[in-house]
Amino acid sequence: MKSKLNSVVFTHDSILLLSSMEKALTLTEKKRLDILAAAQDEFKEKGFLGASMDSLAKRAEVSKRTVYNHFPSKEILFHNIVKELCDSFRQAANIQYHPNKPLGEQLHFAATSEIQLLASECFRDLNRITISECIRSPELASSTLDHLGQQKEGLHVWIHEAMKDGRLKTADAHFAAQQFLGLIKASAFWPQLFMNQAFPSAEQQKIIADDTVLMFLARYKA
Amino acid sequence: MKSKLNSVVFTHDSILLLSSMEKALTLTEKKRLDILAAAQDEFKEKGFLGASMDSLAKRAEVSKRTVYNHFPSKEILFHNIVKELCDSFRQAANIQYHPNKPLGEQLHFAATSEIQLLASECFRDLNRITISECIRSPELASSTLDHLGQQKEGLHVWIHEAMKDGRLKTADAHFAAQQFLGLIKASAFWPQLFMNQAFPSAEQQKIIADDTVLMFLARYKA
DNA sequence: TAGGTAAACTGCACCGAGTAGTTTACATTT
DNA sequence: AAATGTAAACTACTCGGTGCAGTTTACCTA
Q1: Does B181 touch chain A if contact means CB atoms closer than 8 Å?
Q2: What is the spatial distance, in angstroms and rounded to an integer, between the CA atom of A72 and the C1' atom of C21?
Q3: pTM higher than 0.85 for the full model?
Q4: Do B211 and A175 touch (CB under 8 A)?
């Protein structure tokens, strides 16, 4: 299996769930997780408007009433899903600036971990779910995609420090970080999100990371 | 002055058309344009699923029956809107490679015209309308976003020629074009589309174009 | 220029399907 | 037996789409 994050939530296989969590789960809690898993599938597949509570309940093999016992409304359930998915990415790859290590090495690590994040099925699911709604719901847009910009924050700080340290040309650190991530996402995020393009292979990922660092340093190295 | 019956079928800009020709339009044609304009607003505002044919008809100040006289179904109407918007971007900025002009100048032109395109309210409308649906409809995704990739094609060819000419380092031209556009869109497209970020001012646009070219040439100039 | 005809528009009622959310009455678990 | 979960029916909608009777418009002819 793939997902190493919050294994409980993303596991669709209830038997596995039960066996791995011992007998700790009461039936009520199990149902709750079934509902969350089914809701995630339903929303992912049909979007917020397209999703139906009946279909969702059937998916979870649970009475619709039970769904409403756990979540008072469709919207609240939706926000729970989004929140939950968001939380699983709190572990923002906090890149630390090391004055002694080579810039290329540090940047390559940043690029690789960003690609790693973009590669995770989980992360793309979150985006597929939210982005459609974000366009028409600014509130959700900011609350959610703030999270997405979190490791951008980290990179921005890193760049700023490297500039202060005289190892990068002085420039707008925020803008530079945007460029760095833009280079990556142009190949490893947007095309996969909107067209159904396959995600880059391991070799392609390496090329993307290498070339991003190469280009970035060609421009900014002091 | 009389107008041929079907000369108006494909519309460029409905509002402009209406105000400039006014009397020349037969009532049927005017209604048709009213419907298209209203549909554009409705879809833009609520998306495909959220849009309602009743609300749309009211917006167009037209009987719902009339809507269905012109367009047999909601889906067909939607595709008409998308097609119409697409057609208004047929003028793909076809960048031509000039062996004698400086690379920076030519690239700067490409960057500027790309930003120009991304800046147009029209173009962002098209994307806002389609992208949400593209995620769940691969068919629409390819048919529509092919268009978006058209000027990318142009750039890719340009880069290829410059490489053959020995003025750029030999590399994957398609990948390089993707990088070039990624640099631009990271600042002037995606943030505006999903968050409601304001579009860059004229000065900011210049900075983006300058810096994109700078970075690209730092990496690829032979 | 007047008049007639065909086509288009209107407004409304209506259909069947589906929606979120609630209630009721029964079954299972503990 | 008390508590919780259950299915199915029910409410009060909204939706896309249709049928139809009556009105308006466009255009051709006499």
Answers
A1: yes
A2: 9
A3: no
A4: yes
Q: Write the pLDDT tens digit of every residue in A13-71.
A: 333 333 333 334 566 777 888 888 888 888 988 889 889 988 888 888 888 888 888 88
- Summarize pLDDT for B145-177 with one digit per residue, the tens: 666 655 556 888 999 999 999 999 999 999 999
The one-letter code for the residue type at A103 is: L
Nucleic chain D: which protein residues 135-194 of A have CB below 7 A from it?
A: none
Structure tokens at A29: 């809690």
The C-alpha atoms of residue A136 and residue A121 are separated, in whole angstroms, by: 24
Cβ atoms of residues A172 and A114 within 8 Å: no
Residue B64 approaches strand D within 7 Å at CB: yes
Whether residue A129 lies within 8 A of chain B, CB to CB, comes out as: no
The amino acid sitting at B30 is K
| Cα A143 to Cα A127: distance, rounded to the nearest angstrom | 13
A197–B contact, CB cutoff 8 A:
no
Query: What distance lies between CA B74 and its chain's CA centroid?
Result: 22
